[in-house]
Design a protein that fits this description.
Shape: globular
Number of strands: 2
Number of domains: 2
Helix content: 40-55%
Order of helices and strands: EHEHHHHHHHHHH
Number of helices: 11
Length: about 250
């Protein structure tokens, strides 16, 4: 399937122009394409963006800011469900860059603005000169995709688990071991025992807490095929690998 894409240079120019108060509409010559065949229906992105804007307004009306626990945990499921992305577009950094810049810029700014410091969203949140897993829209989609539980009445129940931003991005979305979806799902259950709480089992930010577990899982992946382990075996592996780590 074919989708639109943006280069780093064009994406940066658009973001900078808009931040200077100059409405900028992409020229046809500035838009690249990735993939072949029928065009992906970009009205799905418009639908998803409108849903996220409604969520943003509801949170802001209650005096809340957009964070991993107030926004990301529900936004990821909405985004994943509506977009229905084909694999070839998921693999394209240019496609994610186009989505972020053209369809979700206000969401990205609201999620990352820091009024007290007077800072705006970092260009990497648009995927500008950054990997796909730094792009905020891609992060939301991958959060839902990587722990999707087709056997549950709500396949997004794990993605909606409240939790520390670093857990989702450094522990689930970016490392290669989480390509084993069952390990990713079991890691969520291991670190967050209560699905209604963001209270972690291992310390979230200490170098002797869950961050050390990420390193151990990467090393173990060289000799252990996580894909062949059962849920119970994965839970035992996680318990053994973290037995001497700092609890929350």
């Amino acid at each position: 399937m074919k989708g639109k894409a943006l280069s780093n240079e064009v994406a940066r120019k658009v973001v900078e122009q808009r931040r200077q108060g100059r409405p900028y509409r992409l020229l046809r010559t500035e838009v690249d394409y990735t993939g072949t065949g029928d065009a992906w229906d970009e009205s799905k992105a418009d639908h998803a963006a409108n849903e996220l804007r409604c969520m943003k307004v509801r949170l802001q009306d209650r005096g809340m800011t957009l964070t991993a626990n107030t926004f990301d945990k529900d936004a990821c499921a909405i985004l994943h469900r509506i977009l229905e992305l084909p694999n070839n577009l998921v693999a394209s950094d240019g496609f994610w860059r186009w989505l972020a810049v053209e369809k979700f810029p206000d969401i990205i700014e609201a999620r990352h603005v820091n009024l007290s410091r007077g800072t705006l969203a970092h260009p990497g949140n648009y995927g500008i000169n950054a990997s796909v897993t730094r792009n905020r829209v891609a992060i939301l989609w991958f959060r839902a995709e990587m722990v999707y539980d087709s056997d549950s009445a709500d396949p997004y129940h794990l993605a909606k688990q409240p939790g520390h931003t670093d857990f989702w991005e450094s522990g689930i979305i970016r490392p290669r071991y989480a390509w084993c979806r069952n390990l990713a799902r079991q890691l969520v259950k291991f670190q967050y025992r209560d699905p209604t709480s963001d209270r972690a089992y291992l310390h979230s930010t200490s170098p002797d807490g869950v961050r050390e577990l990420y390193k151990r899982l990467r090393r173990l992946h060289a000799i252990v095929s996580y894909e062949f382990l059962s849920d119970e075996e994965l839970q035992r592996l996680l318990a053994d690998a973290s037995s001497n780590l700092k609890r929350a």
